[in-house]
């Protein structure tokens, strides 16, 4: 179970770092930057409105600090600080969109590779006659023994004389 969780974490991280196709990369970066800025202001005790700048990148140290703070105070966290929950939901949504875009990119790449391989196999087989032409009747084994009508009967032992 721990292996699956670890694998899901690393795949999500890889997919999040792949370039996105659905939304523009600047939109996702803006959402993540706004979330990082807001988490920093919440940690500092500021209740200012969440505003994002489109040119900044997510600071991993701040994101890790926000995540560890959220995990340590999980019970009733959203009731006390709804702004942090809103921002966390935005971050999760942005990371999920990036992961989804990365998974779609990977799926399209694998699908293209499979289609190319099938096309190569079809091109190679085009010049040769088909070798799989036997029917099920052709594949049935032929009877090797004699037919039952021509087989001689099993000889019986001679009769014994009746004893008195």
Can you walk through the features of this model?
This protein has 164 residues and is mostly helical. It has one domain. Helix 1 packs across helix 5. The longest helix has 45 residues.
Assign an overall shape.
elongated
Helical percentage: 55-70%
The profile of the biggest β sheet is: none
- Please trace the helix and strand order, writing H or E for each element: HHHHHH
| Helix vs. strand class | mainly alpha
Count of discrete alpha- or pi-helical segments spanning 4 or more residues: 6
Q: Please tell me the overall pLDDT.
A: 74
Q: What does the radius of gyration come to?
A: 37 Å
Uncertain stretches of 5 or more adjacent residues: 46-53
What is the first-to-last residue Cα distance?
88 Å
Please report the total strand number as a whole number.
Answer: 0
How much of the residues is beta strand, in percent?
under 5%
Total domains, how many? 1
Summarize the structure.
This protein has 164 residues and is mostly helical. It has helices at residues 2-17, 25-43, 60-72, 77-80, 82-126, 136-139.
Could you name the key traits of this structure?
164 residues; 6 helices; mainly alpha; elongated
SSE order and pairing:
Elements: H1 2-17, H2 25-43, H3 60-72, H4 77-80, H5 82-126, H6 136-139
Helix pairs in contact: 1-5, 2-5
């Amino acid at each position: 179970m721990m292996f699956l969780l670890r694998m899901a974490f690393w795949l999500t991280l890889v997919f999040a770092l792949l370039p996105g196709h659905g939304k523009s990369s600047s939109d996702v970066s803006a959402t993540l930057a706004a979330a990082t800025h807001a988490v920093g202001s919440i940690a500092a005790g500021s209740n200012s409105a969440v505003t994002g700048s489109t040119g900044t990148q997510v600071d991993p140290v701040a994101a890790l600090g926000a995540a560890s703070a959220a995990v340590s105070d999980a019970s009733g966290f959203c009731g006390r600080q709804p702004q942090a929950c809103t921002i966390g939901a935005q971050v999760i949504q942005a990371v999920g969109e990036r992961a989804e875009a990365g998974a779609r990119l990977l799926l399209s790449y694998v699908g293209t590779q499979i289609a190319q391989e099938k096309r190569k196999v079809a091109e190679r087989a085009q010049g040769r006659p088909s070798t799989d032409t036997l029917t099920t009747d052709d594949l049935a084994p032929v009877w090797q023994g004699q037919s039952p009508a021509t087989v001689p009967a099993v000889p019986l032992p001679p009769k014994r004389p009746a004893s008195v």
